[in-house]
Amino acid sequence: MSRPAWFWPTPDMAPTAVSGFRAGLSELGLTYVVGVQPTLSVWRPGESPLPPKPWSGRGRPPSRVGRADNHKPISAKALAEELDAETWRTIAWREGINAELSSRFAAMRLRPASRDYNRPEPHTEEWLLIEWPEGEAEPSKYWLSTLPADATITQLVDAAKLRWRIERDYQELKQELGLGHYEGRGGGASTTTPASVSPPTASWSL
Question: For 179-199, what is each residue's pLDDT tens digit?
Fold first, then answer.
């Protein structure tokens, strides 16, 4: 399986910006794993928005999908809280110093609902991956991914946790260059060096 593009939004990034970013990746034909906020609007697995209303014979025929009081999307966090205990699986995703590090994950195919009421058709199905560590009061992370429908939850977790590998490689590079503890200051002058640049937050290696 090719390595997907990886992206994690900053806390102040608007949901519409993240949605637009995902749309741009899809237009480029890139497979992605994108971190999303718990407020992301989604349809439950198997559900879709309502089809456009029948045309009354007047004006323009309705062309946008719709919702109803008894048929509407929910937040990703609300969906996570609905899941049965059996849905969650403990997956080891990297090796720690003394033991494997693992967490609880759930993955499901569903349709994002973000602003779909402005669309003539529903969003296509994607994977929603959720991490809810054992003992925590609520889920910690959420991702949307366009990995194939037959991808395993282990493959999804491996792709979602790609950021850790990027940051690890970045830190190892700093150590190899002898810049691991360099603060960019000396002799009363301030110097900017590559070591002061934040590690990358996306991987475009496909």
Answer: 655 544 444 433 333 333 333
